[in-house]
Amino acid sequence: MTYGLTVQNDSNYIQIDSDTPRLCAIYSGTYSEDGTTATITFSSPITTSEPPCMFIRNDQSLPDTLYNGCTIIGVVGNWTGFTLSTNNTNFGIKGKWFAAVFSAKAEADYGLRMWAADGSIIYDSGTTPVLVTRASHSWTYQGSYNGSQGTGNYRSSNAGGGPLLSDEYFMINPFSRGALCSNGGWAESGVQFNSTNNYLLWYAFQAFGLWIDAGQPAAIFARLPGT
């Protein structure tokens, strides 16, 4: 940045930069359904070109929920909501969520607001920042097992373990698609935060011909203070 505004803290960490929007939580809330899907509509569309990063925290009253999909509803510049799905047929779906983008929206009555050259708001002191706490793309194969989905199921654990803080979530977007198999097909997959061992578990169901290397999907955790 040649001209503009940069704010750094005592550790020389850049907290505000007029050229680089920070990751902010635009909307947040809860979900609770008796079935295997929950659809949430934002109070107004998110107008960014990229879809929002969706973070969730499963309610501990349903600790075994396996999330096998997250579909962002809308189109570029008009994201209107999202749908979460699970493959648990005997449980409901319940938890908390927030939607984050590298942008801001007008929130503060008093404070600081900055606009980009195109007129979009890139900083507003009233928009809640997302505090990324840890991230890891390292996975360890845990073996195969037989479950309610049948045989040929595999699971891997993420190396970025540790207990969830009371206001900490994980990003569901990287786990909203299936797993590629060596035969050219794909297998349904799911993700679950294992509260007993404090790590993310990634599953592939009926994955005949699946490579046991889960690849490097990013496990990203973040805090949303006050939730």
Q: How would you describe this protein?
A:
- With 227 residues, the protein is an all-beta fold.
- It has strands at residues 6-8, 14-17, 24-33, 37-46, 53-58, 67-75, 78-86, 93-101, 113-115, 121-124, 128-129, 131-136, 139-147, 150-158, 168-171, 179-180, 186-194, 199-205, 219-223.
- The protein has two domains: 6-132, no CATH class; 134-223, no CATH class.
- The strands form five sheets. It has a seven-stranded antiparallel beta sheet with strand order 11-3-8-5-15-19-12, with no helix packed on it. A five-stranded antiparallel beta sheet has the order 13-14-18-17-16, with no helix packed on it. It has a three-stranded antiparallel beta sheet with strand order 4-7-6, with no helix packed on it.
Largest sheet: 7 strands, antiparallel
The percentage helix is under 10%
**How many beta strands in the DSSP annotation?**
19
Write down the overall geometry. globular
Tell me the series of helices and strands, N- to C-terminal: EEEEEEEEEEEEEEEEEEE
Q: Average pLDDT, to the nearest integer?
A: 84
- Tally of alpha and pi helices: 0
**Number of structurally distinct domains:** 2
**How far is it from the N-terminal to the C-terminal residue, by CA?**
34 Å
Poorly predicted tracts of residues: none
Placed side by side, the strands forming the largest sheet appear as 11-3-8-5-15-19-12
Estimated share of beta-strand residues: over 45%
Rg (CA only): 19 Å
* Assembly of the depicted chains: single chain
User: Which class best fits the helix and strand makeup?
Assistant: mainly beta
